[in-house]
Amino acid sequence: MERLQKVIAHSGLVSRRKAEELIAEGKVKVNGKIVRELGTKVGPNDKVEVNEVPLEKEAPVYYLLYKPRGVISAVSDDKNRKVVTDFFPEIAERIYPVGRLDYDTSGLLILTNDGEFANVLMHPKHEVDKVYVAKVKGIPLRESLKKLDRGIKLEDGMTAPARTRVISVDKKKQTSIVEITIHEGRNRQVRRMFEAIGHPVMKLKRERYGFLTLQGLSVGDSRELTPHEVKQLRALAVTGQKR
């Protein structure tokens, strides 16, 4: 089930803000009845009409993007900064990112126009692993990293247990490369976790999402997910995975 204005926007007919205006004006019907409440949720079998015209739903599409640093994980930006959908100029469907990567973080990002699929992947109870590689200041002690492995308290609560692995250290520059695996999606979570143990992140990249990797892609490249990959992601999110 998705919010009515979101369904209308994802159809490509109008923006979400315009969809909200149409609903408030009584120009939208669900199963033959006028709906004015913005919180109304509809499912795939509900018939939606806008100005007496049935809403045509886009065929679902699914993409993987190697997001560069300095790009916003959104479909638009009021400061006219580059956004992830700018990398899909030939795509007619109104795709949007599943979750987000920070402006200064690069790596794997999924985009789709399938709201139900996106909601399943992003739901907190679904434990899809996300693997990041971070360049951090200093050389973390094993005991410091164990704090992340057990879960560490941030301003918005305890994190779920993570998995960490030191890939390399540079004693001369006093920096380290650390791999960290989490399954939550809080804002700037990985950066805040390392800050909490006194090792600020200098550079961050998401290398894996579930079983998906960046293999074969350069920064800014994208590819369409295969039907089998989409099916696997759904199954992974619904059933969870061994951690």
From TrEMBL:
A GO cellular component entry from the record? cytosol
**An example Gene Ontology molecular-function term:** RNA binding
Reply yes or no: does the keyword Membrane apply: no
Q: Which PROSITE patterns match?
A: PSI_RSU (PS01149), S4 (PS50889)
Q: Which GO terms describe its biological process?
A: enzyme-directed rRNA pseudouridine synthesis
**InterPro entries reported in the protein's UniProt record:** PsdUridine_s_RsuA/RluB/E/F_cat (IPR042092), PsdUridine_synth_cat_dom_sf (IPR020103), PsdUridine_synth_RsuA/RluA (IPR006145), PsdUridine_synth_RsuA/RluB/E/F (IPR000748), PsdUridine_synth_RsuA/RluB_CS (IPR018496), RsuA_PseudoU_synthase (IPR050343), S4_RNA-bd (IPR002942), S4_RNA-bd_sf (IPR036986)
Describe the location of the RNA-binding S4 domain by residue ranges: 2-59
EC numbers: 5.4.99.-
PANTHER family referenced in this protein's UniProt entry, alphabetically: PSEUDOURIDINE SYNTHASE FAMILY PROTEIN-RELATED (PTHR47683), RNA-BINDING S4 DOMAIN-CONTAINING PROTEIN (PTHR47683:SF2)
Q: Which family does it belong to?
A: Belongs to the pseudouridine synthase RsuA family.
Q: What is this protein called?
A: Pseudouridine synthase
